[in-house]
């Protein structure tokens, strides 16, 4: 993850522009714009997770929570590739969560509880209220500090150090009242979504028991683990029940551990040994098949995956077949399910089989998931370009960069799309409308 000098230049610019604005209180509209600015700067300085399981499945958890939360903003969830165990909500409805935190959740309701807690901070506008009170705090410094928190390595520490004075003034460590309010609001949201009200309490207990909070610098302790918070939640929810199907989450957790490297390089041996001791466990078998696949042991990978005893076997085995380039078999395995993860690997199988038309048709059904997993848009762009439709190729590439917060590259590709379409064409007019909305997002930089 490379930090770029323009990041600090932008931070300085934002500091200058927004310094006085924050003193007068933030409107909902301003929060949306400033939240987008924070997202853009973090996206430029931190690695965004690029795994379809994490991106798409956790987006569905987010959607389930958001559907019952009555939020003041649409929630934008971003998963940061980092071993740091943290989550944070900024102004305007933007939530950031690390792969390190995901890997520490044994149950889906714990992750949902943490996410709902962040929803509580947004709903109660805790950061916005601090910005309203602290006249010398600005959005640029907030972006600096949140990036430093979430990156969590040496580079992240450098970013955090640059904003330490600001962090002391802003005190990103929420007040006890803020945390208790977010606990209460978040637990209600989680319960309404079918996760029960004790997910966040379970996660706090785990971190407390393992002493995880002792290894974090004070400026990273945004979520103090008070015993009183756990007790309050348990008293609030004496009878809490999970009613949604969470059976798929262990497979998502395997991805977080393997591809997010949450537990270090020795995780491969740990998971393979776990499989050898309990071969009938489908999660163990899936983990081992992924490890063998990644190491180029295609036959071993397929042998293990073919015996997975799980309702999700077509997806899990289909993915392994795609990795082994056995595309015809993968297509047969995946084609009859409309779930977005099945459709994504089906598109990869069609592409591998040189059936570009079917790959494009399948990927287009996944466009609603493009903001959660921009790789969908990137694959569409590459496919349409190879098929000779340069207009759509540039358009999808522009949309891809737009979802990553890279406005310069988004604009460049969208302008090329207009040229290829012809300036007076219906497609060009649609792209122009998209560029107008992009300019609105950048309004505060004008």
- Following the backbone from N to C, one meets helices and strands in this order, namely HHHEEEHHHHHHHHHHHHHHHHHHHHH
Strand order across the biggest sheet?
1-3-2
Q: What would you call the shape?
A: globular
Proportion of strand residues: under 5%
Provide the low-confidence segments as ranges. Answer: 1-24, 154-171, 214-222
Report the radius of gyration as a whole number of Å.
23 Å
Query: What assembly state would you assign to the polypeptide chains in this entry?
Result: single chain
Number of helical stretches of at least 4 residues: 24
| Main sheet summary | 3 strands, mixed
Alpha carbon gap, first and last residue: 29 Å
What is the number of beta strands? 3
Work out the helicity level: 55-70%
**Total individual domains:** 2
Structural class category: mainly alpha
Q: What do the pLDDT scores average to?
A: 82
Describe the fold and architecture.
This protein has 446 residues and is an all-alpha fold. The protein folds into two domains: 5-236, no CATH class; 249-445, Serine Threonine Protein Phosphatase 5, Tetratricopeptide repeat. Helix content is 65%, strand content 3%. A three-stranded mixed beta sheet has the order 1-3-2, sandwiched between helices. A hairpin with a 4-residue loop joins strand 2 and strand 3 (94-98). Helix 15 runs parallel beside helix 17, helix 17 packs antiparallel against helix 18 and helix 22 (390-403) packs antiparallel against helix 23 (407-421).
